[in-house]
Design goal:
483 residues; alpha/beta; Aldehyde Dehydrogenase, Chain A, domain 1; Aldehyde Dehydrogenase, Chain A, domain 2; 7-stranded mixed beta sheet; 6-stranded mixed beta sheet; globular; binds magnesium ion
Length: 483
């Protein structure tokens, strides 16, 4: 029997009021591994009311000290470390990512709790000078009730990078994880309850976007929405949130350039370029999906990347040695396959790896690593986010040409530059319109640093100091001191 998951509202585990459920799949086999509440607007309302009441009654904020809020998060970090292997297995099973990558995710989840546990006691305002007859205090206060709407590619990380700073800031919240991957999100309230979080501060509801996500965005009782997902839904959230002037943080997609100059450390650049698009099956918003290679080394680089792709081991995500698992869902696999068809008419396919041969995985949503060569930067596979293991390789001659093509895209999330020339690296980094630029590296995202995009890749920055700032309002208190 598959696990019957439940919502967590006001400290209680509940089914949807109408009893509706949906299936959760193991993407490597297509088997049902759990069912989860198909929450409807009435369930969402109940969760919002719990969060609103808990915020408005004052016992959580300002009633609970910053030290205690911090300690709750620090204890949560310890609990995640204690449960590390179990959570990693669960994440790998639910999302399809290789177990080694899931372990890295869960380690970072523990650190996010620790990092924001430290922040709780370090949020403070400012005292700008306003002359001899007055004093101005700028006080930082929690934004109120926050909603977190999260995707399936890094299920627990994407949730905790919203939940932890919100708690540090003193907000209450409602988390709605992606319908594809609700398992680890429902572990978060267990961890925080054990760590001492009072009922009502964090509420978690599972369900689909239109029925369980949209009511969070429309509700006048919710002050802020933090969203990670597609550009299309990001825009819808801005539109639907406009009526209540919702504060929004949007972490959307990308079509990130990965620029390899001829003077780069060749092996490191090849390895990095491949990892940048093949890690996590390419289901990464910052994936280096456009690999721009300088002509002098183009043929050698392409050959080396083709060899790398052939060496990728598709298989059961839980098996040690697997380097690529299935895509998260049948829908996502079909979407990526459609792009591979489009690419086949736009460019030349340099390689496509093999599907796993194990009959137990016959029903899995596997899409092998695929490389298209000599891609025109105007092609759809160079302009649109695919969100799968599909690399578009684009030749260039001069740094100016590489830059122009890199910036010629509606997204601006991330970019990578591979070169031994520090001036070229820095000048390129400065000219790139992207929220994150890696020099001789890719995809590294320490939780101490800001994460977010330029242009249509989003609004705001999560993680680092900005991650907590996004859950705060500034209140100016003006004191007249004139005699
Ligand atoms: P999505 O944007 O539809 O889903 C993300 C989250 O938004 C889920 O929790 C979903 O239930 C929720 N949602 C959907 N409709 C909503 C609505 N009307 N109101 C409120 N919440 C809503 O993404 P989806 O369909 O899973 O994937 C489609 C594409 O989106 C992918 O192929 C990829 O290109 C992109 N994507 C980008 C991600 C990123 O990290 N930036 C993560 C996931 C997907
Ligand atoms: Mg969708």
């Amino acid at each position: 029997m598959a696990d019957a998951l439940q919502n967590y509202i006001d400290g209680k585990w509940l089914d949807a009021a109408d009893g509706g459920r949906f299936d959760v799949f193991d993407p490597s086999t297509g088997a049902v591994i759990a069912t989860a509440p198909d929450s409807q607007p009435a369930d969402v309302e109940r969760a919002i009311d719990a969060a609103r009441r808990t915020f408005d009654d004052g016992a959580w904020w300002p009633g609970t000290s910053e030290r205690e809020r911090g300690r709750i998060l620090l204890r949560a970090a310890d609990i995640v470390r204690r449960e590390h292997e179990r959570l990693s297995q669960m994440e790998s099973l639910d999302s399809g990512k290789p177990i080694g990558e899931a372990r890295e995710d869960i380690s970072e989840v523990a650190f996010m709790f620790e990092y924001y546990g430290g922040w709780a006691t370090k949020i403070h305002g400012d005292i700008p000078p306003v002359g001899p007859d007055a004093m101005s205090l700028v006080v930082k206060e929690p934004m109120g009730v926050a909603a977190a709407i999260t995707p399936w590619n890094y299920p627990m990380m994407m949730a905790v990078q919203k939940v932890a700073p919100a708690i540090a800031a003193g907000c209450t919240l409602i988390l709605k994880p992606a319908e594809q991957t609700p398992l680890t999100a429902l572990e978060i309230p267990k961890i925080l309850e054990e760590a001492g979080l009072p009922a009502g501060v964090l509420n978690v509801i599972t369900g689909f976007g239109e029925t369980a996500g949209a009511p969070l965005v429309a509700s006048p009782k919710v002050d802020k929405v933090g969203f990670t997902g597609s550009k299309e839904i990001g825009k819808l959230i801005m539109r639907n949130g406009a009526d209540t002037l919702k504060r929004v943080t949007l972490e959307l997609g990308g079509k990130s350039p990965n620029i390899v100059f001829a003077d780069a450390d060749f092996d490191a650049a090849i390895e990095g370029s491949c990892n940048g698009i093949f890690w996590n099956q390419g289901e990464i918003c910052s994936a280096g999906s456009r690999v721009l290679v300088q002509r002098e080394i183009y043929d050698d680089a392409l050959n080396a990347m083709v060899e790398h792709a052939k060496g990728v081991k598709l298989g059961a995500p839980g098996a040690e040695g697997t380097t690529m698992g299935p895509l998260v869902s049948k829908d996502q696999a079909e979407r990526v396959e459609r792009y591979i068809e489009i690419g086949s008419s736009e460019a030349s396919m340099a390689v496509q790896g093999d599907r796993p041969t194990d009959p137990a995985l016959a029903g899995g949503y596997f899409v092998p690593p695929t490389i298209f060569a000599d891609v025109d930067n105007k092609a759809r596979i160079a302009q649109e986010e695919i969100f799968g293991p599909v690399m578009s390789v684009i030749p260039f001659s001069t740094p100016e040409e590489a830059l122009a093509m890199s910036n010629d895209n509606e997204y601006g999330l991330a970019a990578a530059v591979w070169t031994r020339d520090i001036k070229k690296a820095m000048n390129t980094a400065r000219a790139l319109r992207a929220g994150i630029v890696w020099i001789n590296d890719t995809q590294t995202a320490p939780s101490e640093t800001p994460w977010g995009g330029y242009k249509q890749s989003g609004i705001g920055r999560e993680l680092g100091a900005s991650g907590v700032e996004d859950y705060l309002e500034a209140k100016h208190i003006y004191v007249n001191l004139a005699e």
